[in-house]
Specification:
Blueprint: E1 2-4, E2 18-23, H1 25-28, E3 32-36, E4 42-46, E5 56-60, E6 63-69, E7 72-78, H2 82-94, E8 99-101, E9 105-109, H3 112-120, E10 126-130, H4 147-152
Length: 155
């Protein structure tokens, strides 16, 4: 097994001999995981930051090993104005589901809770199978007691 601890340089040469390592989005979000490329080569990942789709993570000879994120079920929700886009993003964000913005539609995880919310408030959507790369706006998000409460309790 080859252990990958850092990414290969971004200036790798394009090669006709690209070898994919297919991986689910949730696994790809991790820093430590294992996978097998389509040629059977096993890789272990111990990275500082998670990988992304279409990244070259290893080069061996003329072979470039590339991450290929697996497509997954999503909902495509069209919008025509910025206000409509913001409203849709708020609705989805209020459920704490990830979203990806495209030029004319919002791509949302194909989850039953999202479906029920869209149907309840009568927002039309299409079902699709796509490579889903949602925005990551914060490293962590919680509704618990933060540092501020610690300071209030000092007085």
């Amino acid at each position: 097994m080859k252990i990958i601890k850092k990414l290969y340089s971004d200036d790798f040469e394009e090669s006709e001999n690209e070898i994919s390592l297919s991986v689910d989005r949730r696994v790809l979000a991790k820093r430590r995981w294992r996978g097998q490329a389509e040629d059977g080569t096993d890789f272990g990942f111990d990275l500082e930051i998670p990988l992304q789709n279409r990244v070259c993570f290893h080069v061996e000879g003329n072979r470039n090993y590339i991450i290929a994120q697996k497509p997954e079920p999503v909902f495509l929700v069209s919008f025509s104005t910025q206000w409509e886009a913001a409203h849709l993003a708020w609705q989805v964000g209020n459920l704490h589901f990830p979203a990806q913005f495209k030029d004319t539609y919002l791509m949302v995880e194909g989850d039953l809770a999202v479906r029920l919310m869209l149907e309840r408030i009568k927002i039309p959507f299409e079902e699709s199978i796509e490579v889903f790369q949602p925005m990551v706006a914060a490293a962590s998000h919680h509704h618990g007691n933060g540092k501020l409460l610690k300071y209030f309790n000092m007085w």
